[in-house]
Please model this.
Amino acid sequence: MIRRHYKIIIAAAIMFSFFGFQVNKKSGSEMEVVKILSIDQRVDSLMQKMTLDEKVGQMNLYNGFWDVTGPTPEAGSAKLKYEHLRKGWVGAMLSVRGTRNVKEVQRIAVEETRLGIPLLIGFDVIHGYKTLSPIPLAESASWDLQAIENSARVAATEASAAGINWTFAPMVDISRDPRWGRVMEGGGEDPYLGSKIASARVQGFQGDDLADKNSIAACAKHFAAYGFSESGKEYNSVDIGTSTLYNTVLPPFKAAADSGVKTFMNSFNELNGIPVTGSEFLQRDILKEAWNFEGFVVSDWASINELIFWGHAKDKRQAAIIASRAGSDLDMEGYVYVRELVKLVEDGIVKESIVDDAVRRILKVKFELGLFDDPYKYCDPANEKEVIGNAKHHEAVLDVAKKSIVLLKNEGNLLPLKKEGQKIALIGPLAADKNSPLGSWRIASDDNTAVSVLEGMEKYTSNSLTHKKGVDLVLGHTAFIEEVVINTTNRNGIDEAVETAKTADVVVMVLGEHGFQSGEGRSRTSLDLPGLQQELLEAVYAVNKNIVLVLNNGRPLAIEWAAKHIPAIVEGWQLGTQSGNAIAQVLYGDYNPSGKLPMTFPRNVGQIPIYYNHKSTGRPENTNDNVFWSHYIDVENTPLYPFGHGLSYTTFDYKNFKIHGKDFTVGDAIKVTVDVTNTGNYDGKEVVQLYIRDLFGSITRPVKELKGFELVHFKKGETKTIEFTLTNKELGFFNNQGKYIVEAGDFEVFVGGSSNTVLKDAFTLK
Ligand code: BGC
Model:
């Protein structure tokens, strides 16, 4: 589709550049001759007309007037913002939403400023606008790239109908630390899976043609290494080596760039001593030069100011110098460029070419979005009414919600539940909750609009269902509405819940984190079930062991007790608007789960960081029966649930695993096949995963690395041969100079339904 568009555009460009002119039919019989210019030419021509003030204005991004997603460095009065808008000192706004509001600010920019340059209107469309998909970490558990793309498309369609033309997504930060609250926004711990997901999301948001009215510009964030914040603490330092940076952190960003993402956002962290907003190495050397990225970089919220608090710039003036030179093109709500940059250029301290480069990049995206042709293209109230929250979107988010659920454990096939004649007790503070499943980052959706598990289960009317909360998860919230106060004292409902559980055939318990316990600014030092939920779980277990535990959470949890005692565990994340329907359909077997964990579940917090693609160490095993090997003395090395783990109601058998050949030369395409059979009693899907291990390297290699996967549907009894190809792209790595190399040597290849698969074969690369 993209290619077809390009062909038409190229053909048209050749035709018109030959003649140099196009004849346009205008209203009535009036004919006008318009010179056809490329976007670059249009940008150049506009820039020639711009004053320095106006150029710097394009580098200024203001927050709107109500939703706030960070501390405001200046009082940020609406009056001042309107004043700046009218002067042409604002290039973009964020968190202005709804066609009426967007049209109003856009009208000022277009009709009241000298050059009438339209605004970019950004918004955190992280997992939907009003109709919410699962949180991104959950969606990543689907390993279903088409479903992920569809979900981003729904988000773009609703957001664009509300006047928004730019989303601050996808977040592609790899993280190995579930203490960090923002793991809920990303694709998990693995760079290969993360890269595929990054591309799918970019494609979903931007569509086939950015100029379409339901396409919006995407933003790969947070560039870079924010997910490695020390000790999982928000906004913290990051100190990682070149190998981790190139092999783990950067690949999803590169994938986003290769997929045509229009913008990047930098981040709050420092990387090896340089706050990344001021990092020339990341933003210029890597992104704009090595990767040839032609879009622009937006700072994170006031992150240019934060150069001062990091102790990297002494004041705003110096922050502006550092950030602009480093390639941060647009200042988000920082008031630094708008206050400092004009003077710095006039004084010859910042080169005008730096400003020109930034402005050129910003304007180009505006042209590509078609904003100069129709600045109000996203501002149609009739479309807004029709599109937002329509039934098709609910179907789409239900589809991806079901695909995101991971069956962690199912001892004795307790699941799926029988549909008739069962007495079911539904217990837990999250069972009837309609708010928490919406998750964090859902600024435009209304409170309490998720389908609860209770509502979802009530649709199955041939069983008896009794609901008891047991305990409250939260007692309320602090002055900041999104900060919840966890209940650690009120046990009033426990006895009643235990009584109900006593006589039930099956107890379904919905426990986990509140939706506002993960997300930005929500790091945790404990990964236990918060509050009194563990106590409730154990009290119920004491009277009835037939428990299905449904987890609702925004990050991996350390649920070692539950994993040991509870027979069935379903990872139900925070699944968005259709949450309860998706969970009920899985519990009752109307949907056979196929999700796989995108992030390792630790046994306890002390194991963190724990991730599947770790290095071997010099003492990986206990060969001499003593303590002198790489381990803990109080907990085993394995995780609770590994990356890639997830069960189905059916079973899969892997046979005839074959590498087609034994000796290869660097550059060969190596074919790998395996026969997978559905050996159980249900049709179902399996994510067939392929991992490699490069046994010896000039830089030590991980014990396993995901290098291929395929989501395959199998009928009951069906066998399919799954084929993978390994090439230089999969077999190499970045060395400590950031150069991609492929080394000859011995490799192992593993296939299976999880990263802990032991089915392996080997080959040599010469
Ligand atoms: C977050 C970004 C977000 C921005 C705008 C910041 O606090 O780190 O991810 O896009 O706010 O809301």
Notes: Confidence is low (pLDDT under 50) at residues 1-34.
